[in-house]
Structure formats: structure tokens, C-alpha cells
Automatic annotation (TrEMBL):
<dbReference type="InterPro" id="IPR018247">
    <property type="entry name" value="EF_Hand_1_Ca_BS"/>
</dbReference>
<feature type="domain" description="EF-hand">
    <location>
        <begin position="97"/>
        <end position="132"/>
    </location>
</feature>
<dbReference type="GO" id="GO:0005509">
    <property type="term" value="F:calcium ion binding"/>
</dbReference>
<dbReference type="Pfam" id="PF13202">
    <property type="entry name" value="EF-hand_5"/>
</dbReference>
<feature type="domain" description="EF-hand">
    <location>
        <begin position="48"/>
        <end position="83"/>
    </location>
</feature>
<dbReference type="InterPro" id="IPR011992">
    <property type="entry name" value="EF-hand-dom_pair"/>
</dbReference>
<dbReference type="InterPro" id="IPR002048">
    <property type="entry name" value="EF_hand_dom"/>
</dbReference>
<protein>
    <submittedName>
        <fullName>EF hand</fullName>
    </submittedName>
</protein>
Amino acid sequence: MIPRRTIVFAFTAGTFLAGVLPVLAKSRHSNWIRMFDTDNDGTVDLAEAKKAASALFDKLDRDHDGTLDKRELARRLTPKEFAAADPDHDGTLTKDEYLAVVEQRFTAADSDHDGTLDAKEFNTKAGQALLRLLK
């Protein structure tokens, strides 16, 4: 038989988590917005996303050759996505090619077509795909 104290604790913890987890999920995306939102308007526009992506590109380009290969991208793109993003099929992405993918993902995540992304849009599948290219 399960002690009453264990049942009460489990119920209390479950009730607490049910209320806190959605808030934590939302705040997690709000943190990303704050990180990329250089004009502090509470949203991320394409220029801000590209600025973050450009900085990440430079960080990931460990050999400083101006390109990223599949290894340097560290699973940010699937092989199929990488092939589509590599129009010259040289096995690497230049910064312009990388930023083109960022722009495509930004557009896909911008569900209300207002040119900015909020926490709700970052929480979508398309928003998560974009985040992989920004962080």
C-alpha cells in the first residue's frame, strides 16, 4: 500500500508542474528573443536573425576558411537540407548560402507575415528549425 504522504506529494508535484511547465517553455523562447532582439521591441526581425546567424557562422567556422562543412554545422541541418542549401554542390556552405537558409526558415516561421517572430512563432516547428541556425 502506498503511504498517504507519497500520494499527496505526487499530486502536489503534478499540479505544480502542470502550472509551471507551460510558463517555463514560454520563458525559454522569450530568453531567445531577448538574446537576438537588439532593438528591444519584444520580437526578432529578419535583420536581427541574420545578425545572430552571421555571428554563429563565424563561431562555427573553426578553420576560418569562410565556409561550413557538415561537421562544422554539427547537425543543424539534415543531409537533405544541407544538399538543398548547397547550390554549387561543393560540400560546404558559404555565409551567403547559410544566411539564405536562415531567411527561408525565418519566412516559414513568420506565420502572421508581419516580418517579425514572437515567442509563439519560435515555439512552432519552423521556429525551432530557425533557432537551430541561430544558437
